[in-house]
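Lecture notes, part 5. Sequence design as translation. It can be helpful to think of inverse folding as translation between two languages: the language of shapes and the language of residues. The source text, in structure tokens, appears below.
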């Protein structure tokens, strides 16, 4: 609001994110899926607790890396894409926590209410999701920061879209929040796959002279 920034604010913001989007989601998932579905002394329960702990560590690492990139905008690792304001490097921890929370919001009752067999099956899927989210947070995939939304000439359309999404969330929050969170988490993966399939600029520049020489020889 004051358009000011301090070093302590950067660190305090990350500490708040660890509590809100790190500790709170793993406590929620444990009480919703892993705790009720597996015996406390079983190997599945231990694996679930381990994955929840690693999710928290990956989230803390992601926030620490973001602080370094914000204060020192340089390549931290060989092959890491350059930092810009339009994209995040790695999945931010708020969308990761939002996806976990949206699943709980979609089906609020603990998984144990579905029966022992289904509860264990769904809990395995949740554990896989937690592992994937942790890997995405420490990855170098690009995720849109949405900071440029509304800066163009079509601000009126964006206001209408935001209003429509807000109304849909009000009416169908269970479905819309899950779709939005899944869409954001998956768009970084799709973006990466599309960039892998699309020829790079260097390749296109190498191919262009060859095409020109072939055309000249034919003439």
């Amino acid at each position: 609001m004051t358009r000011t920034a301090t070093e302590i604010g950067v660190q305090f913001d990350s500490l708040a994110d660890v509590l809100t989007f790190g500790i709170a989601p793993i406590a929620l998932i444990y009480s919703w899926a892993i705790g009720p579905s597996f015996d406390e002394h079983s190997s599945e329960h231990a694996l679930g607790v381990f994955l929840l702990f690693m999710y928290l560590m990956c989230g803390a690492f992601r926030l620490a890396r973001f602080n370094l990139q914000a204060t020192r905008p340089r390549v931290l690792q060989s092959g890491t894409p350059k930092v810009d304001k339009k994209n995040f490097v790695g999945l931010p921890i708020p969308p990761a926590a939002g996806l976990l929370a949206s699943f709980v919001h979609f089906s609020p009752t603990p998984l144990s209410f579905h029966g022992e067999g289904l509860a264990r099956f769904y809990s395995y899927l949740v554990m896989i999701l937690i592992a994937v989210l942790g890997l995405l947070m420490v990855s170098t995939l690009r995720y849109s920061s949405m900071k440029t939304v509304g800066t163009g000439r079509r601000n009126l359309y964006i206001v209408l879209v935001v209003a429509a999404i807000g109304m849909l969330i009000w009416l169908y929050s269970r479905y819309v929040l899950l779709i939005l969170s899944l869409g954001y988490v998956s768009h970084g993966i799709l973006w990466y796959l599309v960039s892998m399939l699309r020829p790079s600029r260097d390749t296109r520049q190498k191919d262009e002279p060859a095409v020109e020489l072939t055309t000249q020889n034919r003439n």
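The translated text above is only one of many valid answers, since several sequences can fold into similar shapes. Residues 74-81 have pLDDT under 50 and may be disordered.
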